[in-house]
Structures are given as C-alpha cells and as structure tokens.
Amino acid sequence: VELASAAGMDVRYSETERRIHLLDGEAYFRVARDSRPFRVNVANGSVTALGTQFAIDRTQDDAHLIVTEHAVKVRTGAHIISVAAGRMVRFGAAGIGAVETADPNRLAWRDGRLAFAGRPLGEVVASLNRWTSGRIVLLDDSLASRVVTMMIGLHDVEHAIERLGAVVPMRIMRVTSLLTLVRAP
Prior knowledge:
The structure is a single chain. By secondary structure, this protein is mainly β. Helix content is 11%, strand content 54%. A hairpin with a 3-residue loop joins β6 and β7.
C-alpha cells in the first residue's frame, strides 16, 4: 500500500480474508494473488480483488476508484459491478456512478506532483488541504464550482492557492500561517 498525505486505514487480516478500512485520503494498492479475498471498505461501499493494482481516493461521502491492472468488483448495497484496468468510477451513499476512462492525473501524487485537469475548485482545495500544513477555506460557494486546470509539485503545494489566484479571479486572505480564506472578488 502507498498512502498519500493525510490518509489513514485500519487493517484486518485473518485466515479467510484480507480486509482494509480506508478511513480517509488516498491509497494505492498492489494486491498479491491469494486464496483469501482482498477487500477495501470505504464510503458506503467496498472494493474486492484477488490480484490487481488500484487506487482509491476517499472523500467524506464517497470514493473514487481507478484500476491500473486487472479488475476489481465494487459493491454498494445490492449493486455490484466489475471495473477493468484503465477505468475509473465514483461510488458511495448515492450508489455507483458511470464507469469512465481513467484520468492518470488522479495518481500524479505517486510521482511527487498534484495534477488537476478540468476539476471543480472545491475538489482541488479539498485535495490541497490534505497536502498543506494549514487549511484553505472557500467562503463563496460560487468559487467551488469553478473549473480549473493546474499542476504543482508536492514541494511547492503551500503556494498552490496563490498560483490559482493568478488565473482564477479570487481574493486570498492569509489569516495565519495555518489558515487561508478565499472568496470571490
């Protein structure tokens, strides 16, 4: 398992199964073939694999799965689907979304950078908050839906909001070194 910043999990292995509960954040799994199923429980659903590679990004209410090798099964309630390599899907309390072509930018953290292509600013800020020492708070809901594209190295993530402010109209107020407020101009 490779854990991204601010990720946490609970691991339970027994003679009959290998079970992980992803509590928060992102994780990339390389699963060895074994007679015991490998299950990751997350956000009102689960992912099961026997031998594969995949990543899960857990948010508060749902999760985003990207499969990079073989296939996994996703379950929410009574719904079960199979997701193959090169595909991604969002799932959670609202069920399972449409299976789409995987966005490799979602795994850029494994290479030391964060990459966002056409993603809502609210989602970008939530991701940045996992990687910064402080907290960025959007005060204006209209900003959260603004679509942005950016790439930044993990070594420079503390300055990401200023870089975004250079291309997206917004007012940035650093209250302390641990709190940055952002609102519409």
